[in-house]
Amino acid sequence: SAKQDNAHAQHFIGLMFKLGQGVRKSHAEAAKWFKRSAEQNDQGALLELAMLYRQGLGVVKDEARRFQLLIRAAELGNSVAKFRVAQSYAQGLGVAVDLNQAAQWYRSAAIQGHVVAQNLLGLLYAEGEALALSYTESAKWLTMSANQGYMFSQLTLGAMYQTGKGVDKSVEQALYWYQQAAEQGSEDAQY
User: In the prediction, which pLDDT does 10 show?
Assistant: First the structure.
């Protein structure tokens, strides 16, 4: 199957070599199989190969190549890849820093339900630098993330309800979100 260019099988073999499951662990061999699968646009293989280029495992470390692979996976619709492309633009990993591009890719991942992208998009709206300042938009994205159980969004929403930024001021709602965050171990929410 793998020799017949079955992308899924090639991806799986790459994972076996990466993890050393049933075969001797070899990042170089994993990279070989991920490359074969990635040539057929297997999104998971593109992500795995990008990680190997990031860490320099089995391949020469190359942030620009990593970024190219992430873009391919993102353009195929992978929300994790979209998030990592956004991070790359935000941090200048393999590409020049571009907060506007970062915001666009965070939005694209957030629309697909990526919880951390939703949180970061909400924070970008609250900062008002890469995106126009909008506490209402901030609250919208933070609520989506918080409803998925993301502690940092819950904590931020608690503060927003406490102060009335972007939402109607509500002690009850502030308490609710602080409790949600505290139940997940947030020490900040416990005070």
Answer: 95
Half-sphere exposure in the Cβ direction for 67 (13 Å, CA)? 17
CB 73 within 8 Å of CB 37 = no
Average pLDDT, the chain: 94
Nearest in space to 50 (alpha carbons), one of 16, 77, 74, 21:
74
- pTM of whole model > 0.85? yes
Torsion, Cα of 111, 15, 93, 96 (10° steps)? -70
Write the Ramachandran bin of 92: left for phi over 0, alpha for psi from -120 to 50, otherwise beta.
left
Phi and psi at 126, nearest 5°, equal -75, -30
Contact indicator for 11, 44 with CB cutoff of 8 Å: yes
Q: Closest by alpha carbon to 83, among 64, 108, 65, 63? A: 108
Q: How is 32-91 classified by DSSP, letter by letter?
A: HHHHHHHTTT-HHHHHHHHHHHHHTSSS---HHHHHHHHHHHHHTT-HHHHHHHHHHHHH
DSSP category for residue 167: S
- pLDDT tens readout for residues 31-71: 999 999 999 999 999 999 999 999 999 999 999 999 999 99
Instruction: Identify residue 114 by its one-letter amino acid code.
Output: H
